Amino acid sequence: MGRHHNRTGFTLIELLTVIAILAILAGLLFPVFMTARGKAREITCVSNLRQIGLAIRMYAQDYDELYPWAVDPTDKYTPEIWFSYPEFQAQIPFMPMIHETLQSYIRSRELFRCPADTGYDVEDFNGIALDARPTSFEKFGTSYNYRTEIAFRHLGEAGIDRPSEINLMFDAAGRWHGGLVFDQMRYNVLHADGHTKNLSRLQVMELWDNPL
């Protein structure tokens, strides 16, 4: 009378096959999850900037329709970026930070935190070193920079020819929503007319070139 053996587990080959299939599926799904997560952060960031834009409008109503007279971390901690404009540079020590200026017009200081903010070591648009770690928000209180020339010139929307083509506030670093290479960087931008948009590095540089 022969013995009957019941199989109670996987063979080594079967186990390795299952692991290989799971690894392939993980490899396929991980980029999808990361893309979805990145998109969610982008949407939150754009929403933050849109609400900051509303706060700027309320500020303008209280201050003769002018944009905030304030600076961002790059102006405050690397004022040498304005060495060619000594009349602007001279104002910096007396100007508050943009997020502090708008504090009474927003519900929460968290509006100035981009969920994709991982900090930076070098300023994106001038190449000057600045320690913004672990995040720009944690270090300075804001993830966003300001086109401070607008403040130096004491401008409001009525004083700008094409406010829809002027970058008012924007992500401090383009790799938060894009890649490390310049061509892959993307920025969420609040325009001077209040609308927000996610733009490529090239598109943001074109906004910088638009005169005030």
Q: What labels describe this entry?
A:
four-stranded antiparallel β-sheet; two-stranded antiparallel ribbon; alpha+beta; 39% helix; single chain; elongated; 212 residues
Write up this protein:
There is one protein chain. The protein is an alpha+beta fold and 212 residues long. It has one domain. Helix content is 39%, strand content 12%. The strands form two sheets. The chain has a four-stranded antiparallel beta sheet with strand order 3-4-5-6, sandwiched between helices. A hairpin with a 4-residue loop joins strand 5 (186-191) and strand 6 (196-200). It is elongated and about 80 Å long. The chain starts with 11 loop residues before the first helix and ends with a helix. 32% of the residues are buried. The model has no long low-confidence stretch (mean pLDDT 89).
Secondary-structure element series: HHHHEEHEHEEEH
The largest sheet has its strands arranged as 3-4-5-6
β-strand number: 6
Whole-number average pLDDT? 89
What structural category do the secondary elements indicate? alpha+beta
- Terminal CA distance: 97 Å
Largest sheet: 4 strands, antiparallel
Radius of gyration: 24 Å
Helices, by number, come to 7
Low-confidence stretches: none
Overall tally of structural domains: 1
3D shape: elongated
User: What share of the residues lie within helices?
Assistant: 25-40%
Strand content: 5-15%
